Known about the structure:
Residues 1-20 form the signal peptide. This protein is 23% helix and 41% strand.
Amino acid sequence: MMRPVLALMLSLALAGPALAETLRDPATGLAITAPAGTVATAAPPLPPGPIRAVFDIRRPGETETGCRLSTVEAPANAFLTQEELNQRSAAPDYQQAMAAQLAQAYDLLVLDIVTHAGITGLGVVGDLRRAPGDSGPNLRSLLIFLDTPLQRVMLICVADEATFDARLPEFEAILAGVGLP
């Protein structure tokens, strides 16, 4: 049921609304041009870990929902060409391995191939599992993974489950504003 929604969202990703100023991380080359109605800010990477660049893209005043764009070191990717990485992302075995990892934290609804700026990656929609007794909001996430020979780029967009579908055009506009290294 959600698969057509994700496919539509990703196919329209390049047709987002007028874009504003671009933020760029000079160390990684990752960039974001936030669409109208959202604000992009640089955020510090969460230590310890391999995350090197982080941007938050949210509506003004939003704290728990919105998008986070980041890069993660991926040294093994350096031995592969972009074409090989694209083929890997499209391979069923790779997709199953990614799904198994993500299923530890999410109830997965959709896993599909995504293409952005000539890079084939994975797009996943899932509901974040809550800890027992957690009475917080029911959150649904769009996770996009794009591997390059330099690094993995991740875009994670989160919304309340009840408003997720209505926010897909906003998330597609954010994806359209991602500049890859």
